[in-house]
Design goal:
Layout (H helix, E strand, L loop, with lengths): L18 H22 L1 H12 L3 H17 L1 H10 L2 H20 L4 H17 L1 H11 L4 H29 L7 H17 L13 H8 L3 H31 L4 H26 L4 H21 L3 H29 L5 H16 L1 H12 L2 H23 L1
Helix pairs in contact: 1-5, 1-7, 1-8, 1-9, 2-8, 2-11, 3-6, 3-15, 3-16, 4-5, 4-7, 4-15, 5-6, 5-7, 5-9, 7-8, 7-15, 8-12, 8-14, 10-15, 11-12, 11-15, 11-16, 11-17, 12-14, 13-14, 13-17, 16-17
Length: 398
């Protein structure tokens, strides 16, 4: 079996930032920060990309959906392969492919090449996070919620950095230059992980057993309900991540700088909220916390849509970030508690393929509705998705 799964460990034996497990947690989190930053920098760059490549909002949303869709498809094989081969194998391969995809985006002077780069990034990114989360679960039990909170917060730091990177890049260069530091950092993380991890590389034919994993994953009504709720959350999240800056600029009339700041605020707040939510999930029942987070997010997003002033939009965006970003570490810890240890990678992978795959429809949906109506109307559907998801989890919490 991959990793170094031990028996039940106490909190005193687990260190989030020290020791071998802590070093791996920080390293894979840096990789996730960079992958997320590279993907999410596309959102504040989107108006410039649309103009430079002469494409419609729908075609821009389609490119994001391709990236997220391929990313989603990679979750299950990543988890299954990391269970049967090694976490290290999947993580290093994922980092290498993501590096290659971002390199293509640096050279993307046409829409077809832009699609190719997005697709390759989706493959590399798809292989990475499930194996990373399984690796973290290998090394953390008593502090699993805290470890997931730190790891998922790293992705939000990447999102916050993406907004600043977009503003800085557009001030001095074309949008393609934003991916150059992403390529450099991912290459370094891959090399350091290669030398740090004690696991060996394993290459072998593996039966993915999609049917067996699916039968196990969807065997209970509780798991089915939770995954439906996560699908609706992912739909809202990916729609937001793809078009929030565009909403703030084109429909709300704010400057590109304000739109980028609002986008960055999502992730800065998320980086603060997720570790706290993860630690809370280690101490109380997870389902009520997750339901409350979704409900808060729905109310706040509605506030963003109806607000008129910069102050009101800013406050609503911060509250939206609190609700939206508190959900993943709580729910992922909950799911990992449910999944059997010897198949947690595959189970989490198929769950992620399901909800991220559904969520990948979000950017295309927003682009389509915005093209026919406006962005406020499109985002109204995301409010409805969060309300339904909150209701499902609230029922589960009873």
């Amino acid at each position: 079996m991959p990793g170094s799964r031990a028996g039940t460990r106490s909190e005193a034996e687990e260190h989030l930032v020290r020791g071998y497990g802590g070093r791996l947690l920080l390293l894979v989190s840096l990789g996730w920060l960079t992958i997320q930053g590279g993907r999410l920098v596309l959102s504040p760059l989107l108006p410039s990309i649309i103009d430079d490549l002469s494409i419609t909002p729908f075609r821009a949303g389609l490119a994001l959906s391709i990236l997220w869709g391929i990313y989603a498809l990679g979750q299950f094989p990543s988890g299954r392969l990391s269970d049967r081969l090694s976490r290290k194998t999947l993580l290093v391969v994922g980092l290498t492919l993501a590096t290659a995809g971002f390199t293509v985006l640096v050279a993307a002077i046409s829409y077809p090449l832009f699609l190719v780069g997005a697709a390759v990034v989706g493959v590399g990114a798809g292989l990475y996070p499930t194996a990373a989360r399984a690796l973290i679960s290998d090394h953390f039990e008593a502090k699993r919620g805290g470890a997931f909170g730190l790891h998922t917060a790293s992705g939000d730091l990447g999102g916050g950095a993406a907004a600043g990177l977009a503003v800085a890049t557009l001030a001095v260069a074309a949008w393609r230059a934003a991916f150059l530091p992403v390529v450099a950092i991912l290459a370094v993380v891959a090399a350091v992980l290669h030398w740090t991890s004690r696991e060996s590389y394993r290459i072998a034919a593996v039966d993915l057993d999609v049917r067996g994993t699916g039968a196990r994953l969807f065997a209970t009504s509780r798991t089915r309900r939770l995954i439906v709720a996560y699908c609706l959350f992912a739909f809202a999240w990916q729609g937001t991540a793809g078009f929030l800056p565009t909403l703030l600029q084109l429909d709300k009339g704010f400057s590109p700088e304000f739109a980028s700041a609002g986008f960055a605020g999502l992730f800065v707040v998320g980086a603060l909220v997720k570790p706290t939510a993860g630690r809370l999930a280690d101490r109380v029942r997870r389902a009520p916390v997750a339901a409350g987070a979704l409900g808060l997010g729905a109310v706040a997003l509605g506030g963003v849509l109806v607000a008129e002033t910069a102050l009101a939009v800013g406050v609503a965006t911060v509250v939206y970030a609190v609700g939206l970003m508190a959900f993943p570490p709580v729910m992922q810890s909950y799911l990992m508690d449910i999944f059997p240890t010897d198949s947690m990678g595959a189970d989490l992978g198929l769950a992620r393929t399901t909800y991220i795959g559904f969520g990948a429809l979000g950017p295309s949906f927003i682009g389509l509705v915005a093209g026919r109506a406006d962005y406020v109307t499109a985002f109204g559907a995301l409010v409805a998705a969060l309300v339904v998801a909150a209701t499902i989890v609230a029922v589960e919490s009873r």
